[in-house]
Specification:
The protein is α+β, with helices and mostly antiparallel strands and about 270 residues long. The chain has helices at about 1-5, 15-20, 25-35, 60-85, 125-135, 135-150, 160-175, 215-235, 260-265; strands at about 40, 50, 85-95, 95-100, 120, 175-180, 190-195, 200-210. Strand 3 and strand 4 (about 95-100) form a beta hairpin. Helix 2 crosses helix 3, helix 4 (about 60-85) packs across helix 8 and helix 5 crosses helix 7.
């Protein structure tokens, strides 16, 4: 929507809704958020929307994300060698997660090899859930509006109130672990946020086969390794690491006898 506004011309709610293929009500809510945040202003006489000078600030964030992705490559490669399973660095792109770095090509355990640039629905991946859980409230609500709105095209694994509850749990834990039932390949994932100056810039994740990796390995080996690498990426980037929610120094053991409600604190399983 910002790209369309920035290209010039006179745009009202109806024309913008058609341009981005969204219902008018959804487009209006997005415009209200952009106006409230100062990126767009509305002419009260003509009802035409225009971008403001604040859109220039968006390029700073893009440059920072690009630089972080480039700086992260050695750490991602090293982690891939340690864990053997495919490791990836992903960022949020609309209602998708965008794969920015991956060790799929070098991993002998990758059942399917994904390349940088691959996109997946944000609610399907551990990295997407982490990115949403640690996003700003407005950004999270905007993405969920698009996913669950009339024009939402992504497959939704559960109702919105349930997703919002899960995101709150993930934020408290500091990680997301997702298992896809019925898949014996590397369709399970564990992800942690990469945070710079208090903002979540990316998600660091590992994919694995649930049949080959038990919960103890996930919590005692994978999770600490991801968190250490997240901090190392920030060191390579030159930004002091922000303490992560739920970043305990001791590993969280898995107890098969725990009830379903208690296990929900250990893993997210749609």
């Amino acid at each position: 929507m910002l790209a369309i506004l920035n290209a010039g011309g006179e745009h009202r709610v109806a024309s913008l809704a058609r341009a981005v293929n969204l219902p008018r009500s959804t487009a209006f809510r997005i415009l209200c958020t952009l106006v409230e945040d100062g990126y767009v202003w509305r002419d009260p006489i003509s009802d035409v929307y225009h971008p403001t000078a604040m859109v220039l600030a968006l390029s700073d964030g893009f440059d920072a994300t690009t630089r972080l992705v480039q700086a992260a490559k050695p750490a991602v490669v090293e982690l891939g060698k340690q864990l053997v399973w495919p490791v990836m660095l992903a960022t949020l792109a609309g209602t998708s997660v965008l794969l920015r770095q991956t060790t799929d090509a070098a991993s002998p355990l990758a059942a399917v090899r994904y390349a940088p640039g691959f996109r997946a629905p944000v609610l399907d991946e551990a990295s997407g859930l982490v990115l949403l859980a640690f996003a700003t409230h407005q950004q999270r609500q905007m993405v969920l509006d698009l996913v669950y709105g009339e024009g939402g095209h992504a497959r939704v694994p559960m109702a919105r109130p349930e997703i919002e509850k899960r995101l709150a749990e993930i934020h408290d834990l500091g990680y997301a672990c997702v298992h896809h039932p019925g898949h014996s390949s590397d369709r399970s994932g564990l992800a942690v946020p990469v945070r710079a100056d208090g903002d979540t810039v990316a998600a660091l994740a590992v994919r694995f086969a649930r049949t080959a990796v038990n919960q103890q390995v996930i919590m005692e080996r994978f999770l600490p390794s991801l968190r250490r690498t997240s901090r190392r990426i920030l060191d390579l980037f030159g930004t002091p690491a922000t303490p992560q929610h739920g970043a305990a120094t001791a590993p969280v053991p898995y107890h098969p006898g725990l009830g379903a409600g208690q296990r929900a604190r250990l893993e997210v399983d749609p």
